[in-house]
Amino acid sequence: MASIFSKIVSGEIPCYKIAEDANFLAFLDVSPLAEGHTLVIPKGETDYIFDVVDEEYQALWLFAKKVAHAVGKAMPCKRVGVAVIGLEVAHAHIHLVPIQSVNDIDFSQPKLSVATERMTEIASKIQAQL
User: Fold this and answer.
1) 91 counts as catalytic
2) Domain residue spans in the chain?
């Protein structure tokens, strides 16, 4: 069964796209820890990030690095925090979260509810930094 992320890749489910190439996709998390919280995924469905083949794994992190720099320029933050949890969706993904302190990347915190218009604005701001 296709993961929700595979359905986003195929266009079955819409997303707030940040960046895309032939192998990877970055989009805003719809239940973010902070405005600008972005997910970076391989388009191919692999459940566990450490099962991604080496060449693709390295390219995924280089793609995430480019996106993280754009997030950091577009969103007010001290750093862009990085997390790989791997339990929420059975599809490898990297969280890029604008943070002011280490407490800002606590996944047990309540998630934000961000209006559609604001999500679109945030996506545009990050895209403009790529």
Assistant:
1) no
2) 4-114
CA distance 82 to 37: 10
Q: For domain 4-114, is the CATH number 3.30.428.10?
A: yes
Q: Which is the catalytic residue, given 37, 91, 93, 95?
A: 93
Q: Which of 94, 108, 81, 20 is nearest to 50 (CA)?
A: 94
In angstroms, rounded to a whole number, what is the distance separating the alpha carbons of residues 32 and 39?
Answer: 10
* Residuewise pLDDT in 10s, the chain (130 residues): 688 999 999 999 999 999 999 999 999 999 999 999 999 999 999 999 999 999 999 999 999 999 999 999 999 999 999 999 988 899 999 999 999 999 999 999 999 999 999 999 999 999 999 9
Neighbouring CB atoms inside 10 A of 94's CB total 24
Identify the burial level of 130 via C-beta atoms within 10 angstroms of its C-beta, where 0-12 means exposed, 13-18 middle and 19 or more buried. Answer: middle
Give pTM, 2 decimals.
Answer: 0.96
